[in-house]
């Protein structure tokens, strides 16, 4: 079994487990991102409150709307990413080794090459799996009609809960095949690649994070240069905090693209309200800024940060353990384990 295949299968396995554990947060986040009415109070509460409201109004099953295609998408996405990452990484290592033989470099893969490998892998992944995520987004944002309440339940419902009730929606079966048919009728084959442009741009997130990290690290070292510890006096917690700030900065810069992508992939409403129809990425950004303000581009960011950090940690941990187990079964030697950067989860 090739190393690329091992990493691809391990990435798919880790991604599935992380997806199962964090999916309710993804559902809430998708609804936050695609809510287009800034006056609605239902999307000003925290993620926990919104989770409770979905359960109360629509039932537990709606927290897992679109789970089946999402698991397929996660397995495909992680598998494709790690498979191509290992292929591109191996080629980059071979190229670096050839240059070192000619006396150029030390034979190691540089940071720019590593970022390029990650970016190329991300682009291939986006292009191949975008149709799955369009279907998932539509299933996550579909709402069932409110559950019928008995007289005793109605008496217990507070005025605030009533105010937070979602608008009436169609109460029809919303299976994967229905979504695919509706999407094809709405936009044809190209509809399955809605939001692909912001998704491709999102591949730049790791590069932005690294750039911010290096900039902050350089400034901190400069400020501490006069210290008797010198530039080498950075503690583990300081490095951790720099990494966290850099990740937060990259998220702040690129998160609007996630919102735009979700808006483009969600079902377009056919009515007279111009806010509900987007012709493309630029049109979506323009209308969101005009009708919802800057805050509209950051809807649900808190929920996404919590979900992404938890999912990424689980994915990396599980994926590495699966790689170790697979290599041990194939070769009997665990010393071949290589640490590879994880791709951030949806």
UniProtKB/TrEMBL annotation:
Regions that span the bilayer: 67-88, 109-128, 192-213, 234-258
Keywords, A to Z, come to: Membrane, Repeat, Transmembrane, Transmembrane helix, Transport
Q: Which GO terms of type biological process are on file?
A: NAD transport; transmembrane transport
> What would be one Gene Ontology cellular-component term for the protein?
membrane
What Gene3D superfamilies does the entry give?
Mitochondrial carrier domain
Q: Which SUPFAM superfamilies match?
A: Mitochondrial carrier (SSF103506)
* MF GO annotations: transmembrane transporter activity
| Location(s), subcellular | Membrane
Q: Which residues form the signal peptide?
A: none
Q: Where are the annotated Solcar repeats, by residue?
A: 2-91, 109-219, 234-325
Protein name per the record: Peroxisomal membrane protein
